[in-house]
Amino acid sequence: MPLSEYERKMLEELEAQLAEENPGFAQSMREQGSEPSERAGSSLQFSLRHLVLGLLLALAGIAILVGGVAIEQVIIGVLGVVVLFAGMWYIVTGIKTGGEGARRTRQERPSGSNGAGSAKSAAAGFMARQMAAWEKRQNQ
Length: 140
Description:
This protein is mainly α. Helices cover 74% and strands 4% of the residues.
């Protein structure tokens, strides 16, 4: 569903505020967003071990569930559902997100930027502007 004109305007304002407060982060987000075909290929990595074991566990859970229904034992059916969800959870834990850009370590970051400090100050400035806008609307 496309964004309304108001939503598009608000997103543009937020992007401008972000670029003003933290230009390095805004630039890195623009660089990541400019190459969707490269990102799409490397954004998800599946662990084959997690996939196979998780599928086996999920199939065992389905078998237990069907067996519990067949012998009309609710507790066995519930156990089957738990095993099924455990298998699905195990599959999901094997999915790693992020491509080459997401793998940057602290040593590779520019020495002058403190990610936590700048993020906190950016969030504080953003929240201060939002509170001021809220108070302005309340006083009208």
